[in-house]
Task: structure prediction
Amino acid sequence: MDSAPGHTKGRPAVTSNLLPLTFDNVSFEIGGTKLIKEISTSFEAGSLTVILGPNGAGKSLLLRLGHGLLRPSDGAITWKGKDTPQGQRDQAMVFQRPTMLRRSVAANLHHVLKQRKIARPRRLEIVEDMLQRTGLTRLAKAPARTLSVGEQQRLAVARAWAVNPEVLFMDEPAAALDPAATHALEDIMAAIRAAGTKIIMSTHDLGQARRLADDVVFLYRGRMLERATAERFFEKPENDLAEAFLNGELLWWNRKELKPPDHFKVRWQK
Result:
């Protein structure tokens, strides 16, 4: 790790060692039930991609597949045309409900960096930098598990940012946060992105998606029904279910049905 995370000399997108991240006809099933269905798409460097869809759409599964926590049942996932092992060192993930280690805030950061075999003098520099950038300096010695929900999420982001990832997956990172904590987290995300990290995130918050997204992936019941720039998606989505989702209409019916009701003329992904 040659430069402190977040410095203006972050990785330019054109030098990415990982991207594009490509899903080639990827499916994932558990117990004979297919939860992700024949998804083909790729994620390029430079943009912030938001994954949208109702509960049960497969947003978290898609992120976990990309991160390497899950393996596809069918199809292939490649990084810049190559397979990579689970736990790829140049990418990280922040979960909706992060797990805090039974140690101080600063020690949580030290642990992650020690796992990456970063020398102690360098670890001290990075930890100080991360604490400052995420507004946690005054809490450095506090037990991580005593922090508020918003503070714990900032610490989770700091742990991920500390390893200077080229790609950062974020699964509903602000789902449990109040408006002030959400605003603070979005400021941190903006700094991470400015440093050259590609962010792929899921959210239920349409306001947040409008504020942050460059492009949008819309999922429904494990299928990718639309992929578009944020501007076009929010102005006029091509898919009827996506439009219903943006309009706040409930997307529910008998799960045993293979398709939604006839009044939705859905363009299903082939």
Q: What stands out?
A: Helices lie at 59-67, 105-115, 120-133, 149-162, 179-194, 206-212, 230-235, 240-246. Confidence is low (pLDDT under 50) at residues 1-14, 253-258, 263-270. The radius of gyration is 19 Å.
